[in-house]
């Protein structure tokens, strides 16, 4: 029953929210999973994975005989899978062919046989009540008849609302014509099985999606990035697969890595949760979905699950609003050092580690890491394996030459970056300094403060976006300050960093030319251009006059990426004249949980899978009267919708998968209308509120926190 409440209309939502974008309706962000038939019936896999975390399910593989007929045994138990999928709003596609050579297709795709074979595929769709066909012809099976086959199949399926998709390998990209690509509703990019040490690194995913989007001009909404739920290890010249669930069952902590060494000495390369989540962020920013090969390989029902990691990333309600990558430094990986201790000697010394070459420090996931110790400083670094996670213990330098730990030239960097780490101090009563600059390095040795050997001084230093400093002089607390535009330091406070204590530090940095937003502790913060925020143990740090947005030092040009930081201790000469006295090198600091969070921004960030939908007639430009959203109470969110005329509209709330979680039909009055949507049962995450009327379609993206 409708109830008009004056010129402002009301309807129902709930919870804290964050507005992300306006004026767009979002196409469905896909999560596509392949389900092979490993037993005599698909029904054996009915409870093997969570249907609610998918948008599309590809059952694999159906293959015909030389006459184009499909054996009935291939579909045993499929009806039960289809029924459960449809109950969960998941579309099911039959996937044909597969990675192995299927020589019968060459004959079936000939002009003389093609129409009859297409009719048999359409009959297969009808027989099993599925939603379309997925074409996984690979290698030599992609012949000169491929384009005609898929275009004619599309022309047959599309009038009845059925889908046509394809699985595409990078190595056969030149065989896929633009006409063939146009026939597909979307494509699944098989960004795995790369020859070499890593079969599916992040870099290969980016190369694959960039090729189809940028080189070939395919719409981002059409690109579904494939991720593997398995790994490979090499035995002689042969590659042997190992399921992700078997890797995590056998090796503690494997879910957070991409490489493990088996007990037999063979090294397995795979994708753990951090890389899968980074690939999901890439797909959110540059594509239209994620595809999984395959669901039965997952560690289902646990926090190790890769499918859960994908969905958690999609619905993340914290961090940068735009999708972001996270590069975490695992200090427990292999080092190139004979032992865990790196100590100063009578000559200066340094050691550099890269993703492929370890020095004293472990392999960084991308970029380089370095330690430096000046001569005769008494300083040292110790990789401490007695804690989880591992930490690096720094004994401070006694002189002006710093003991330095740096991570620089991090891959896929952004001007919008969070650098976070845990700092554990043991510096009671002693003296010295800890300086932490952050900014840009091109990776060339000694090209910057980040990979050189000097301490940051009060002169203009290229590449520095900002720096924070802790001074250990007098009292029980260190003084926190930030580097100012005169290249000196401005005090923030002297009551946060007790000289003995543990501190989770986060530096939210915006070197873009526009403001950027992030969410923390269920609150949204807008960070102006060329500013940074400092968080310590979950508290936003304030300087004089409640200053929280600290200015960059002006040494790094705007829009330059932030890909480096360094941790320097110096001046710890001890305090022999105090009571009690302290010795030189008595300032000890442990560093752990180091990571970079690198935000996609610009056009990539704005897309996030969102696509413009054309309305039948536009009465007012969306930007003139944008749809708005605001929190009314802890149970409701108000949508403000402008209409140039009196008409009916359908207002819906969808999740990032495109699934409707709330819907209502309303009557809009001319002017502004207020609508309330009830989503009390909706979990935290990303949602789209949309108003669809005859004259105008509009939407707004928001986070429910």
Automatic annotation (TrEMBL):
Known EC number: 3.2.1.14
GO terms for cellular component: extracellular region
Segments forming domain GH18: 29-317
Catalysed reaction equations from the record: Random endo-hydrolysis of N-acetyl-beta-D-glucosaminide (1->4)-beta-linkages in chitin and chitodextrins
The entry's keywords: Glycosidase, Hydrolase
Biological processes annotated in GO: carbohydrate metabolic process; chitin catabolic process
GO molecular function, one term: chitin binding
InterPro entries referenced in this protein's UniProt entry, alphabetically: Chitinase_II/V-like_cat, GH, Glyco_hydro18_cat, Glyco_hydro_18_chit_AS, Glycosyl_Hydrlase_18
Protein name per Swiss-Prot or TrEMBL: chitinase
Species whose genome carries this gene: Pedobacter ginsenosidimutans
